Each structure stands twice: as structure tokens, then as C-alpha cells.
Amino acid sequence: MQLQRTATQRATGAYALLDSLKRHGVRHIFGYPGGAILPIYDELYRFEAAGDIQHILVRHEQGAAHAADGYARATGQVGVCFGTSGPGATNLVTGIATAHMDSIPMVAITGQVPRAAIGTDAFQETDIYGITLPIVKHSYVVRDPRDMARVVAEAFHIASTGRPGPVLIDVPKDVGLEEFDYRPIEPGDVSIRGYRPTVRGNPRQIQAAIALLREAKQPLLYVGGGAIAAGAHAELQQLAEYFHIPTTTTLMGKGAFNEHHPLSVGMLGMHGTAYANFAVSECDLLVAVGSRFDDRVTGKLDEFACRAKVIHIDIDPAEVGKNRTPEVPIVGDVRQVLTELLRRLGEENQPDDGERTRKWRDRIDRWREDYPLEIPQYPDSLAPQEVIAELNRQAPNAFYTTDVGQHQMWAAQFLRNPPRRWISSAGLGTMGFGVPAAMGAKVALPDEEVICISGDGSFQMNLQELGTLAQFGINVKTVIINNGWQGMVRQWQQTFFGERYSASNMEMGMPDIELLCRAYGVIGRVVETREELAEAIATMLNHDGPYVIDARVNKTENCYPMVAPGKSNAQMLGLPDRAKLEAAIELVYCPNCGAKNPQTNHFCPECGTKL
Questions:
Q1: Among residues 137, 173, 254, 300, which one is catalytic?
Q2: Can you give the pLDDT at residue 1?
Q3: Which of 101, 252, 439, 488 is the catalytic position?
Q4: Is the domain of 605 the same as that of 538?
Q5: Domain encompassing residue 588
Q6: Is residue 375's pLDDT more than 70?
Q7: Residue-level pLDDT at 124
Q8: Residue 467 lies inside a defined structural domain of this protein
Q9: Does residue 198 lie within any of the structural domains?
Q10: Same domain for 152 and 15
Q11: Which residues of 459-486 are buried (b: 16+ CB within 10 A; e: fewer)?
Q12: Does residue 351 share a domain with residue 478?
């Protein structure tokens, strides 16, 4: 540990915590006070009065964690949230797990009962250190105030380097009150034994990757959230353009590659575009960049890109080879690896004219023409897709957050997001994420347009944060895609469970959103027709303050394409016209039963024979 040579001063553990946070660039904290964390809040009062830190008082600790998460996703900086001991700490758990699954840098600070009371089942005591062990990158219990500056410095370093993630700091009440000789530690003045993430890729592996890229006739870039975390957007586009490689992204990778670019094939996976899913099924080289071969992406794993050689670039060695063994594994920071790869290509000076992959790109373009994402037009109701498309038309550069469900997938399909402007709970799939995450993004970037796309079920999970938006005048816009159902649950019940709609209808007990918003001092508006949609969105965007649109959409619309569980990505539900499918891709006949199958199906769906 290297300490900055700063004179010591008498201070409390609470002061050391707040001063350390300030030194690490923290300007906003999302939290909710309580007994065990009161010493920290008492010191926070002075820091707020001095204008050093602003505390945003949420209405539920889960909202604090999601707001810190949204803050981090929008900026790339570490988000910070506070909660007291016991239920305050456990209310943070869902938000911590959400950040963990999506590799988001966050520091969660909890109050704890005094040191002497730990282990006695004292009032509001929980072992939050133990509870969160599986869902944090690291955790601390500060048992000596002299450790506070070091712990904060280490926590920020761990949260933001290597593969990012949440770190927990648990502070007993008496540690916050105890005075000691405080010596600050500045950012960067920290060294942790045994913690040295690999950031530079192995030169031999990078050269092997270049060799495969030069040989491939049907390559595909498969880009995940690691590219966003590394800020590798420019390098990724350079690589795609150099080799003329079609590029698909995961839900977490949206925005890493310009979706208006002719090489973009959109999102792949369960609700990805048909052309992205066909492409990954037919490619001969898959370049996985900061992605982890998640089940919602791969479908049936042994049929995912089963004809392809794989290059896998990721900063976390645990992810490389976890679900798919690559021919060329490269452990390192995505941006640094791509930068070195591009540098070597420049030295080789052998430009790629794209002729080798032209037929492949033409084939993908035919799939794109035959299977576009379509917006239905209902004569007597709004389609959910047209609400999202109109939002994208009027606010193309906004920061968008979503909740989880059908509306999330439609938003992923129809929004075209620049880097970091897509903020969604992907790994954990947390309903109630959208509004507080938007709140965090807007607090971080007050001059940017921030819009939450929610569902009627998700919105009700953290609707109390309307009170926070109203109190602090946080100008977040929310659009509820309201179909009166837990939409994705209903779709699965319809498709896979014999239309037995068990506990998925939300119409009974649905609040009047307009009146609910008014009760919080927020403007709400119901939109039911196509004719009023554009004007309503324009009015919302022009309003200076929080605003909610309750868009009543068609109740039976399903989200397609859809890869059914246990199926390959090429076997999608909801594609139009089987005849087009047969014209678009090569057909084979099963040698066992004679059934006609597309070449993208590597096992006969009738009898299971390998084709």
C-alpha cells in the first residue's frame, strides 16, 4: 500500500468515509437513512452543506441501488448507494445482484450494528457481508476506522478495473463515531496484493486471430457488454470495416456498434433479428468480443455457431472457454486487444478488399430484406412497436432505460442507440429497474434527455420513486407500454403452456396512472390512439420536469422473432411465410426420415438425426 504524504488530522470514521468518497470523485449518493448508518448521515449533512456531495433521497433502497447502477452505466464511473443495517441492507440486494450480473462498477455502503453487538442478533442486524458474497466482486467489514481510507480506495479500484462489478462496504455504527488520526489516500495510491487483471492480450494469440480473420469467408462479430465497459466502440468499428465483417450485439452490447451502419445486423438471441440468428448459425468464424455466451444468446448451445471457429476476447479469464471452447482465446481489456490487433494490421499493410466475404454479406442482406422487423398496424389499437418507433424518431440520441419483459425486447429491436445510451437489466432481468436507473442517469447527466420505457407490471414495482423525481425535480420521462398483462409471461403461457393464463393478468387492481402521477406531483397522460401518439410524445419531451405517458397498447401482441427454449437460433417462432424461409436458405433432406430442413438446422426437428 502506497500512502499519499498528507498530514494526519483527528477525524471520525464517518468523516474519513465521506472525505474518501469525495476524493474519489463522488458527487452524488443515492440512499435512505436509518439507525445504524446515522453517524454517516450526520457527517453527510456537513458535506452537503459545503456543496461537496449531493444525496438523493430515494423512497426504497432498491431504488438507490438501481439509481447508482444507472449512474454508472451512463457515465462509466462508479455509482454509490447507501443503506442502513438489517432491512435497509437487504433491500439493496436485488440492485447489487443486478449490477453483478451485468458487470457494473458500484460501491454499496451499509450501516451495521456496533462491533460489540455483531453476532448477537441485535435489532436490525443482518450479515450483509455473508448474504452478498455470491453477488459482489469483493466485500469489506470495516472494524477499525484507521482502515477506512484504504478500504474505500481499494473498493473503487476493484469495482472499476478488470471486469467491473459491485463492491460492498459494511460500516458498524461505532466505527463511524470513533475518532482517530486520519490520513487520506488519493485515487491511484493503492496496490492490492494478488489483484492484477490482465489487460494486454497475448501477442501470439492476437497474431493467430489475425490469421483466422484473413481466412474466413463467413465471419461474424459477436459483441457483448465488455466492449461497452472498455469503451472500444471506435476500435470495434475499425475492425469490422477493415475485414468487412457483419456485426451483431447482445442485449448488453447494444450501442457498442453503430446500428445504422450497413454492417450491423442488430441484436441476436432469443428475440434477436432473424438475420442475426441465421448469420450466427451459418458463420465460419465467430469473433466474440466482451461477450459470455449467455443462454439467451446461444439457444441450444451445441448448435450455436457450430460450424464456426471461435476467437474469444474477454478481460475475465473465467469466461473464456466457460461455455464454448475457442480456437483462439485472448484474455485482456477489449479496447487494448483490439488496438494492438489493428496496429499489427497496419504494420502488415495488407488491406482487405472485402471480395472474400461479399457473397456472405449479400446473403445476410437477402435475409434482412426477407425478414425485417415489422410494426403491425391494428385498426382499433396501438401496437407497442409503433410507440417505441415514434420515441426513437423524436428522441434518437436520448439515454434509454428499460424495465424487463416484452417492452424491453421491442425496445432492443427498434431503438438505435449510441454508446452507453442503452441501459437495461440483462443478466438478472430485474423488473422495477427502469425508473430508478433513469433517475441515476439523469442525475449524472442533467443536460441529456433520459427516457424510461417500462411495462405496466414493471412500473408498479418501484413506482414510489416518482416521489424522488418530484422532490428533486429530476427530469425523467417514462413511457409505459400498458397491455394489462405481465406480457412476456402471458406470451410464454400462450405458446408453451396451453393458454393457461395463471396469475399473469394485471387489469384487476391496475391503478389509474394519471391520478397516481398527480398524487406525486408528476404529470401523467393516457394515450390510446395512433392519432394522438406523436403529439403526446412531443409534449412530453418539451415538458421541463418528470412526465409519464400511459400508452394503452394492443393486449395480444407478441414479441417475435422468438427462439424457443432448447432450440437452435435458426429455429425461430413468428417468422413470416415458410416459403420465403425455404427460398432464403439452402435446404437438405433428412437421411433418416426424409423431412425437408433448412441447412441452418443441424439436427432434424422431426427425428433428431444429425444432418
A1: 173
A2: 35
A3: 488
A4: no
A5: 577-611
A6: yes
A7: 98
A8: yes
A9: no
A10: yes
A11: bbbbbbbbbbbbeeebbbbbbbbbbbbb
A12: no
> Do 399 and 364 share a structural domain?
no
Q: Which of 1, 2, 123, 497 is catalytic?
A: 123
Please give the tally of structural domains in the chain: 4
In the prediction, which pLDDT does 8 show? 82
Task: Please tell me which residue in 43, 47, 61, 112 is annotated as part of the active site.
Answer: 61
Residue 592 to residue 320: CA distance in whole angstroms? 37
Report the CATH number at residue 331: 3.40.50.1220
β pairing state of 9-12 and 179-182: antiparallel
Query: What CATH number has the domain bearing residue 38?
Result: 3.40.50.970
**For residue 452, is it within any domain?**
yes
Q: Are 223 and 249 in contact (CB under 8 A)?
A: yes
Whether 471 sits among the annotated catalytic residues: the reply is: no
Question: Is there a single domain that holds both residue 60 and residue 89?
Answer: yes
Looking at 320, 344, 370, the residue that finishes a domain is 370
CB neighbour list of residue 366: distance below 8 Å, 6 or more residues apart: 584
**Burial class of residue 171, CB neighbours in 10 A (0-12, 13-18, 19+):** buried
User: Average pLDDT in the 130-138 region?
Assistant: 98
- The C-alpha cell at 367 is 435475409
pLDDT at 188: 87
Grid cell of 287 as nine digits: 469473433
Q: What is the average pLDDT across 29-42?
A: 98
- Mapping DSSP to helix (H, G, I), strand (E, B) and coil, where does residue 265 land? strand
> Is 123 labeled as catalytic in the residue annotation?
yes
Identify whether 173 is a catalytic site residue. Answer: yes
pTM of the model: 0.93
Residues 308 and 420 in one domain: no
Q: Does 364 share its domain with 394? A: no
- The catalytic residue among 124, 394, 464, 471 is 124
Is 61 known to be catalytic?
yes
pLDDT (tens digit, 9 = 90+) per residue, 387-426?
999 999 999 999 999 999 999 999 999 999 999 999 999 9
Tens of pLDDT, residue by residue over 104-121, are 999 999 999 999 999 999
pLDDT of residue 609: 60
346-371 pLDDT per residue, tens? 999 999 999 999 999 999 999 999 99
- Cell numbers for 281: 448459425
261 torsion bin: left (phi>0), alpha (psi -120 to 50), beta (else):
beta
Task: Give residue-wise pLDDT tens across range 486-533.
Answer: 999 999 999 999 999 999 999 999 999 999 999 999 999 999 999 999
Q: Which of 511, 329, 489 is nearest to 405 (CA)?
A: 489
Question: Same domain, yes or no, for 162 and 305?
Answer: no
- Place 244 in a pLDDT band, splitting at 50, 70 and 90: very high
- Among 324, 345, 370, which residue terminates a domain? 370
Known catalytic residue at 562: no
Q: Is residue 567 part of a domain?
A: no
What percent of the chain is modeled with pLDDT above 90?
Answer: 92
Closest CA to 228 of 220, 236, 218: 236
